[in-house]
Fold:
Amino acid sequence: MFMLVDCNNFYVSCERVFNPKLQDRPVIVLSNNDGCVIARSNQAKKLGIAMGIPYFKVAKFCQAKKVAVFSSNYMLYGDMSRRVMDILQSEIEHVEIYSIDEAFLYFSSKNIADLITQAKRLRQKILQWTGLPTSIGLGPTKTLAKVANNVAKKEIKEGVLALSESNEWRPILERLALSDIWGVGPRSMKKLLELGIKTPWALAQAPPSFIRKRFSVTLERTIYELKGTPCFQLDSIQPNKQIMVSRAFRKPITNLQEIIEAGCCYATQAFEKLRQQNFVTPRIQVFLTTHPFSLNAEFSSKIISYIFQMPTQDSRLACKATRICLEKMFKTGESYKKVGIMLTELLDITQQTEDIFTNIDGSEMAKSNALMTVMDHINHKMDKNMVFFAAQGIQRSWQGCQQWRSPCYTTRWEDLMLVY
Ligand SMILES: [Mg+2]
Structure:
């Protein structure tokens, strides 16, 4: 059996843990730069605030309805997520962390009553240890565990639902929408509706080979999964296939220096992630996008790669490469909206061998790795930006605005809650 553990309204719930006054209030969380609504409490959903809607469109309404508004605080959400996953991994052998707030667990036991008891206990433990409410769905396949979770979240008070027999999931698949099914996107849904396949149950009855021909192997597998035959296994080790860091500027930028500062900030962040996972990379890709709505210029988005002399994880080289790429792409007079860094080739650090055609020797490599380790250590222990490169800039006026960000309660000493 598969179990899907999913935190309810995750970002909102993280805010509520440290601010209990929010418990019964409508709460929303906004995307970077306070642009769009990306998380809503149930009360906010009831008020009709749509997912993804630009905040300025609902700002007045939110004020009138006393909706609590937060900028996204990824330091907090990331740390709370780690706590939840730690609990699961310390208890269960097979865990796949699927997203920031979801994990699939696998059990070889088929004793449903036992598994339900275990699910309830896990749910209670997560609530007690982190303060976060979760919903848990069980099923013989990942797709059915997702279905069970969906129903548990909305309809079951104890937050746990197991679907072990087809007579249990049939009535549910008959009433859910196709879009509620994992792996059915808006495009396939439209096509399925045109073919007269209107419910997940109807999809489960469709001939798999026909679906493979008209759609994809993945959707064919979804059919088997909906019938209770597992096709998707647990990916317990999910290797990160690429690292990307990019953000839109608060307002359009025309100054090369500021763009380089932002680029270097994202490059150092990307390389920090690289080191956390013990990777090196032979190549960095830098992209630069103009403002899509500017009247006087055409929209352009450019990307340039820089190849290092040898695979590296040194942020200093990343900053240097970023500067070179941005200087090449930048055009005076253009106004820019966004800069970003992509690392697409991630190699294990053991693959960082010396190259006979370069003049970098092993001791230099060891020194560079040691320097990065010290830097990460200080930043991890003290504060995220205790030590940084001058290339990243000091004022950083281009940085996004986060007017309503909550404190980093769990990761920053100054933000620690005081109890009198
Ligand atoms: Mg969730």
Q: What stands out?
A: The pocket of magnesium ion is lined by residues 6-7, 10, 101 (CB under 6 Å). The chain is about 40% helix and 20% strand. The chain has a mean pLDDT of 91.
